[in-house]
Every structure is written in C-alpha cells, then in structure tokens.
Amino acid sequence: MAQGEKNLGKQQIAQVLHDLDRQLTKAVRLFIGGGACGILEYGFQRATGDIDVMGSVPKIGEFKTAIDNVAQHFQLSADWLNDSSKGYVGFLAPDPLKRALPFEDGFEHLQVLLLCRADIVTLKLARGEAVDVQDIAQLVLSNKEQEIIQRNVRFMSKHRPDRAQAVEYRMRELGWADTPRIRPEEIENLSALVQYLEQSGVSVSDSAVAK
Question: Is-contact 161 153, C-beta < 8 A?
C-alpha cells in the first residue's frame, strides 16, 4: 500500500467498514471478494492491503468522498477499497450474488455481501498465485461447495478454457474431487476435450491434442 503500508486484519477490516458506514448518507451495497472476504468469513490467517469490491450499488465513484475520508482517518492508501478485481466475477457461473453471504455487523447505511466460499475458492484457483493457494489449501469443502466449483469450471471453460484447465489441475493437486464426467455432446472447447480424454483413460500427452 502506498501510504503507511497498513495491513488489514479481521478487526481492522470491520473497523474501516464501520467508519465508511458513518461517512455515508445513503444506502450502499458492497459485494466483497478477495482476501478481505476470506479473512472476515472463512478463516484466512493473514492480513490484506485492501478490500476487493466485486460490485457495488451505487458505483464506487459515487461515494468516493466517504472512501477518501476513511483513508485519511486510518492512514490507508487511496485505493484501500477498490473494484479492480470485479472482472473476475465473469469467471463464475450465474448467479454469484444470489450465493453471497451477508456480513451483518450493525451497519446503518452499509449492506455487505461476501462471495460464498465455493466462489472465492474458484477465483483463488483461477488466479493461482502462491498466496491464493496458501489461503485455501487447508479448507475442507462440502459436496455442495465442490459442485458449485465444478459448475463454475464448466462455465469458465466456455470463455476461458485456459483458466478452467488451471483450476482443474490445482484442484487435483489439492486432492479435491475431480470435475464431473463429461459427455461427448458436451465437448465445446479444448478444455472439455482434454477432460473427456482423461476420463476415458487416454493420456493427454499421447493424444493429438498435446501435439
């Protein structure tokens, strides 16, 4: 962070959100992902430098003065609350907002929604940086959560097959369930073809796909 390099742990995240709430004069809904989401709800044992907003109503620019006031109060960087990661929502099967969890902490104007655990795991796997893998490596996923991740992978494979393949690979590395068996009529791209060949017992390295 540019100003003060202030790290935000769970208590500090709640504090800055409460200060933002006090600065607001009208209702604001924040849809939060990234490290801050994991720290607040899913037990990530670290601090973060900012809060990633996956979407907001109204847009962040419309309450920028309140954001700037919080930054000054806590000596945070100007982008302590930002939506630079909102494009990642496009990797998730519809509708992540309906799967979101409320973070209720006595706010007056602020409504905070958090990415569900399956969705944040999907995005961590898609990005795949060391801190992302570390965040989720110790999580134990329910069958329902694994189903949501698998649905996300199928959706992602239609638009970003490279990312979908990366997610599948990292899931196997972490010992999580493989993606569901794919039928021939569902093969729409390279990622789906590779998955079909592997589940059929054909080594991808020996197939024409790998050449």
Answer: no
Q: Residue 14 is encoded by which pair of tokens? A: 């709640």
200 pLDDT band (50/70/90 cuts)? low
Place of tokens 């849809």: 31
For the beta carbon of residue 100, count every other beta carbon within 10 angstroms.
20
Q: pLDDT category, 198, cuts 50, 70, 90?
A: low
Structure tokens at 96: 């992540």
Q: Position 181: which residue type?
A: R
> Cα–Cα distance between 36 and 33 in angstroms, integer?
7
Q: How many residues does the chain have?
A: 211
- Rg over CA atoms, the chain: 19
Classify residue 197 as left (phi > 0), alpha (psi -120 to 50) or beta.
Answer: alpha
- Helix or strand holding residue 110 (H, E): strand 110-114
Q: What is the pTM of this model?
A: 0.79
Going by C-alpha positions, the residue among 85, 68, 86 that lies closest to residue 3 is 68
**Tokens of residue 71, six digits:** 């930054």
Torsion over CA: 198, 202, 203, 204 (sign): negative
Please say whether the beta carbons of 75 and 2 come within 8 A.
Answer: no
The answer to whether the CB of 109 falls within 8 A of the CB of 26 is yes
29 pLDDT more than 90: yes
